[in-house]
C-alpha cells in the first residue's frame, strides 16, 4: 500500500511507495473526468466505505497518537506530521461501528485536504484498499443519500469484480466527509 499525495499547487495526484522508491511514481490528472468519480476505498469494521479522492491529502501508516484531555471519545488525539500538528479522528468510533475488522488489518490515517477543514485533520480507518474511479452508473446517489444529512452519505457505489467465471458485486458506502467534519469542527 502506498502513500497517496494530492498536491493542490500542481493539481496532480501522485502515488508513492511507502518503501522509498522514487522511480515508481505515477501521476494522473487531478480533475474528475465527465461521468466519473475518484474515491479512496477503506474498511471500517467489516464494511467498505469511500470518500472523494480530492477531499484527501495523503494516506499514512498509523503512528503514535498523543491523547488530548477533555475531548469527545472519537477524537483520538494529535500527531506531529512533518512539523504540522494534526488532529486524529477515529471514524469507526464517530460512526458508532462496533465490529472489529474480520482479518488482521493494518490501521491507516487518511489526512484530509485543507478544503475539508482549515485545521489539519486525519481520520483513522482499519485499512485503505485502493483509489478507484467509478462511472456515474455505478453510483446510486438518490436512494440512500439523506437530505437531512443525518447519515452523511453521498451515495452507494456498486463495485463489480470478477471471481473466476462469476461476476461479484459489493456495496461501498460513499461518505460526505466534509459534512461530517463540519458537524464536529467546534470540538477540534
Structural commentary:
About 5% of the residues lie in helices and about 50% in strands. It contains two helices and 14 strands. It has helices at about 90-95, 175-185, and strands at about 1-5, 10-15, 25-30, 35-45, 45-50, 55-60, 75-80, 85-90, 110, 120-125, 125-135, 140, 155-165, 165-175. The strands form three sheets. Strands 11-4-5-14-13-12 form a six-stranded mixed β-sheet, with no helix packed on it. A five-stranded mixed β-sheet has the order 6-9-10-8-7. Strand 4 (about 35-45) and strand 5 form a beta hairpin.
* pLDDT < 50 stretches: 6-31
Mean pLDDT, all residues = 79
According to CATH, what is the class? Mainly Beta
- Which term fits the overall shape? globular
Per DSSP, what share of the residues sits in E-state strands of 2 or more residues?
A: over 45%
State the secondary-structure class.
mainly beta
Total number of domains? 1
Amino acid at each position: 500500500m502506498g502513500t497517496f499525495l494530492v498536491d493542490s499547487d500542481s493539481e496532480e495526484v501522485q502515488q508513492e511507495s511507502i518503501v522509498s522508491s522514487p522511480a515508481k511514481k505515477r501521476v494522473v490528472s487531478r480533475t474528475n473526468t465527465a461521468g466519473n468519480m475518484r474515491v479512496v476505498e477503506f474498511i471500517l469494521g467489516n464494511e467498505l466505505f469511500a470518500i472523494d479522492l480530492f477531499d484527501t491529502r495523503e494516506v499514512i501508516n498509523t503512528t503514535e497518537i498523543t491523547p488530548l484531555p477533555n475531548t469527545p471519545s472519537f477524537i483520538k488525539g494529535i500527531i506531529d506530521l512533518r512539523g504540522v500538528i494534526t488532529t486524529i479522528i477515529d471514524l469507526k468510533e464517530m460512526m458508532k461501528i462496533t465490529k472489529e475488522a474480520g482479518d488482521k488489518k493494518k490501521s491507516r490515517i487518511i489526512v484530509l485536504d485543507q478544503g475539508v477543514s482549515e485545521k489539519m485533520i486525519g481520520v483513522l480507518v482499519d485499512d485503505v484498499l485502493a483509489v478507484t474511479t467509478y462511472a456515474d452508473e455505478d453510483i446510486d446517489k438518490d436512494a440512500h443519500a439523506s437530505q437531512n444529512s443525518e447519515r452523511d452519505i453521498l451515495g452507494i457505489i456498486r463495485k463489480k469484480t470478477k471471481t473466476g467465471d462469476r461476476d461479484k458485486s459489493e456495496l461501498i458506502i460513499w461518505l460526505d466527509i466534509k459534512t461530517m467534519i463540519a458537524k464536529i469542527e467546534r470540538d477540534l
